[in-house]
Recover the amino acids of this structure.
C-alpha cells in the first residue's frame, strides 16, 4: 500500500533542510518498506516568484490528494513589501485553512545533550517536556470582519475579529484531552476569560468537556500568567491547549525555553489525522544557502509524520533514535554548538544521520 | 501647594502592602515637605462587597479629582463566579478607561541584590533594564462589538473586536519614543502585522513617526518572536511599545525574567501625566493577610508616582535609595528570600524602610 507525501521546501533555509529530511526519509522508506511516494509543490515566496500567488491552486489540489505534507519554512525580506493579500504567510494560512488543519501540536522538549543551550537555569528546564496544542484554523487569524477602514473623521482604523464557536472549541479541546490522557494526564487551558468574551465561552466549553475525561486533571490559566509561569517554572505543565493567537505566542516562548528551536518539530492535523509537518523555526533568511541551518527539526517533523499520519511508529522511533545518536556523538550545527562539540554543516549533519541509520 | 493622592488598597494583599507604602510616603511627605493629602476609595472586590459594583461612581469621581492614584491590587476567588459584568477586573478596566490612562509603563529591572531569584542564567539577565510601554485603553480590551451570541445553527459563539485608530497609535507611540529618547535610544514596536490588519496600521504609523525621532533607533518585531527573544536574550531590548493585549502578555513575561515580580512597579498615565500607580503583581489571595506579601513593588510605585505625577524627583530618589539599602542589608520577604538572607514579614520590611529613611 503506497503512501503519498507532499514535500514543500519553501523559502530561506527550507530547501536545504528539506534535502536532508528527504535523505533520511528515503532510507527509512527502504528499511521499513513503507512505500512512500513523493510529490512536490510550491508555497509562499517561492510560489509568488513562480506563479504570482503564495498558494497556487495546484499546491492546494496536491495537498488534498496526499496522505501527509512535509514542509520546510516560508517568508523572507524579499517579499516584505509585497501587497498584503499575497504575502508568503497567506499561503501557509490558506493551506492550514483549506485543509482544515485545526489541531496544531507543538512539543517543547529539552534534549539532555543540549541542556546547556537553554538561557534558563538547568534545574528549571532539565527534563522539560511540554506539548502545546494550538487551535490553527480559527480565532483572530481568520475572523471576519477585518481590514483597515477610514472613519468618519477621516482617520484610519485597523480592525480584526476574534471569535470561536462551540464546535471549534470542542474539537481542539478533544485533541488536547486525548493527548493529555496519553501523556502526563494534566491539561492547562489558557485564555483571557477575565477580559475577552470569546474566551469566556472557550473556558466554559473546555470545563464542560472535562467530565468526559475523569483521568485528566484540568486547570485554567490566564494568558499573561501562562507566559509568566512558562518563564518561572515550565515543568509544571504537561499539555497546554489554547487558541490560535495565544498558541502562536506561547508555543514560541516554550520552544525557546529549550534554547534549541532548531530541534523542534510540529504537526498540524485535520479531524481524520491527515497532517502537515514542519519545524517550529522559521525560514531564517539571514543564514539561507550557507550550510548553517539545523536540519534536525525538519527530520523530527518527518518522524512525527510517520507516527501521526502514516501509522509507522517503528520507523518514527528509528529516526528519533538516530537523532539522539548523532547528538550523543557530538555533532552540532552552529545554532546548537558549544565548546568541545563537533561543528558540522547542514549536509554533514545529514551525513551523520545517514550513518546512524 | 497641596497634592491629593487617592489611595485604593483593593483586595487580597492590597490592603497590607498599602499600609507599608503609606508609612513610607508619610515620612517622605514630611521630609520633603510635599504637602500630600490623602483620600481613599473602593475598587474591585472590596467595592462589590460594599456597593454591589466594582467601580462605584464615587470612586471614579474621587479619581478624577485627585493628582495621582496609588493602587494595590484587585480580584480573588471570592468573586470568581460573579456575573461577568461586575467582576472585580471590570472596576480596574473602567478606571483605566474613565481616566483615559492610555500609557502604561512597565519596567522590568533586575536588582543586582536579587540576581539569584531569576530562573534565567545570570549572564542572560544581569543588568536587565527594559521598559515596556503598553497601550491601556484600546485594542481588544475595549473593542466593540463583543459578547457571546447564538448562531443560526443554534450553537454559541464568543467574539471580540481588536481595533486601533491612528490617534490611539500615535499617542502611545509618542510616549514610547519619548521614553526611548531619555533612555537607551532604542525602541522595538511589537505587532503581528503578518496576520492582523489592526497591527498593519500600527506598524505603519509607528514607522511614520520615526522621522520625528532621528535619535531613536526603531525596529519592529512580531509578537511570537518577541516572546521568544525575551526568553533568549532580553538585554537586546531597551523600550518595547505594543498594544493592550500583547503588552499584557509580554510585560508579565518580562517581569518574570527578573524572578522578583514582587519588586516591580508600574504607571498608567493620561495625556497630561496624571496617573495611577500600582505593583505589577496581582492580589495574591493565597497569601493575603499572612504578612508574607512583599510591599516593595507598591513602595516603588509610590516612588514612580512622585517622579511622574507629583514632580518630586528628589523624594522619588530617596525612596529608591531606601529600597536599595534594605536589600543591601539582606531583608527579604518570602517571595525573594534566599539562603543567608533575613526573612521578614510585610510590616518588618516596612520597618526596615522606615529605618532606612
Ligand atoms: C508565519 C506565521 C503566519 C505563522 C503564524 O503566526 O501562525 C508562524 O508564526 C507560526 O507560528 O507558524
Ligand atoms: C486584571 C487584568 C484585567 C489586567 C489586564 O489584563 O490588563 C492585569 O492582568 C494587568 O495586566 O494589569
Amino acid at each position: 500500500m503506497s503512501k503519498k507525501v507532499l514535500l514543500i521546501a519553501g523559502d530561506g533555509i527550507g530547501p536545504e533542510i528539506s534535502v536532508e529530511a528527504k535523505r533520511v526519509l528515503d532510507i527509512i522508506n527502504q528499511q521499513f518498506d513503507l512505500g512512500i511516494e513523493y510529490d512536490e509543490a510550491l508555497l509562499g515566496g517561492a510560489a509568488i516568484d513562480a506563479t504570482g500567488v503564495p498558494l497556487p491552486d495546484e499546491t492546494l489540489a496536491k495537498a488534498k490528494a496526499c496522505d501527509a505534507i512535509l514542509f520546510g519554512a516560508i517568508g523572507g525580506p524579499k517579499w516584505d513589501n509585497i501587497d498584503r493579500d499575497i504575502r508568503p504567510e497567506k499561503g501557509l494560512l490558506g493551506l492550514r485553512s483549506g485543509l482544515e488543519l485545526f489541531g496544531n501540536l507543538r512539543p517543547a522538549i529539552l534534549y539532555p545533550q543540549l541542556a546547556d543551550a537553554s538561557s534558563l537555569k538547568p534545574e528549571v528546564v532539565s527534563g522539560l517536556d511540554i506539548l502545546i496544542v494550538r487551535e490553527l484554523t480559527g480565532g483572530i487569524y481568520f475572523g471576519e470582519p477585518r481590514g483597515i477602514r477610514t472613519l468618519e473623521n477621516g482617520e484610519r482604523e485597523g480592525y480584526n475579529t476574534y471569535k470561536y464557536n462551540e464546535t471549534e472549541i470542542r474539537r481542539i479541546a478533544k485533541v488536547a484531552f486525548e493527548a493529555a490522557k496519553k501523556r502526563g494526564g494534566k491539561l492547562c487551558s489558557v485564555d483571557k476569560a477575565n477580559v475577552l468574551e470569546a474566551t469566556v465561552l472557550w473556558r466554559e466549553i473546555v470545563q464542560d468537556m472535562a467530565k468526559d475525561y475523569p483521568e485528566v486533571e484540568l486547570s485554567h490559566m490566564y494568558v499573561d500568567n501562562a507566559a509568566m509561569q512558562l518563564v518561572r517554572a515550565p515543568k509544571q505543565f504537561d499539555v497546554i491547549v489554547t487558541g490560535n493567537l495565544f498558541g502562536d505566542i506561547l508555543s514560541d516562548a516554550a520552544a525557546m525555553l529549550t534554547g534549541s528551536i532548531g530541534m523542534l518539530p510540529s504537526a498540524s492535523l485535520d479531524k481524520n489525522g491527515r497532517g502537515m509537518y514542519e519545524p517550529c523555526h522559521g525560514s531564517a533568511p539571514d543564514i539561507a544557502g550557507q550550510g548553517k541551518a539545523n536540519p534536525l527539526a525538519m527530520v523530527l517533523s518527518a518522524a512525527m509524520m510517520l507516527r501521526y499520519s502514516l501509522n509507522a511508529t517503528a520507523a518514527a522511533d528509528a529516526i528519533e533514535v538516530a537523532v539522539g545518536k548523532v547528538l550523543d556523538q557530538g555533532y552540532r550545527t552552529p545554532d546548537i554548538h558549544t565548546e568541545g562539540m563537533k561543528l558540522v554543516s547542514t549536509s554533514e549533519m545529514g551525513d551523520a544521520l545517514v550513518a546512524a541509520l
Remarks:
- The radius of gyration of chain A is 20 Å.
